[in-house]
Amino acid sequence: MNQARFTRFDESTADDWAIIDAHFQIYQNDASRRVLEHLLRLKGDNHGYPIDRYAHCLQTASRALDAGIDEETVVCALLHDIGDDLAPANHAEIAAAILEPYIDPLNVWMIRHHELFQGYHYRAFYGLDPHAREAYRDHPAYARTARFCDEWDQRAFDPDYPSRPLEYFVPMVERIFSREPFGGAPSGGAPPGDAPAETSGVASDTKVRS
Ligand SMILES: [Fe+2]
Questions:
Q1: Quick check: 189 pLDDT over 60?
Q2: What distance in angstroms lies between residue 182's CA and the mean position of ligand 1's atoms?
Q3: Which segments constitute the HD/PDEase domain (predicted)?
Q4: pTM score, two decimals?
């Protein structure tokens, strides 16, 4: 495949951007593979937890699956902690940003706020208010976020749970990432800074995460 010839954007041509966009489409289509590759980085160190973050992610997704929830939510469960190694102080932002172009905004909100909602189960041990999530009681994603944390995420530290292997979830992840980013809005090949953006603010604390 060809490549653009400009050395600065203000000298670029339509042909240059057609070339870049063709490259981007290929890159975009391979996103799910790269995301799953990154999930493997959570293997190994337990960080004091009973199981490592990789096993925790598989278990959270398996528990969601076993509850009969929709595929998009299962993929959210699989990837919700994927940012743990890159952004340990605000990891939920990473998963929310990665999935945001492909999923329901309410599920983006759910992932973005799962740290705070999960805190219902441990914040008291840090002298923090376990009921802090009640500030969002009237939010349309409150119920799903509470369910996500209470029924699947916070329970997913059992070494004996029959989690599915990653391969089981691969087709699901591929289907989600094959959706048109942002429903087909502005070209994904747009230069950095031009991407569609802006979602709701984040509420999080920076103690422990799961
Ligand atoms: Fe988690």
A1: no
A2: 25
A3: 49-164
A4: 0.86
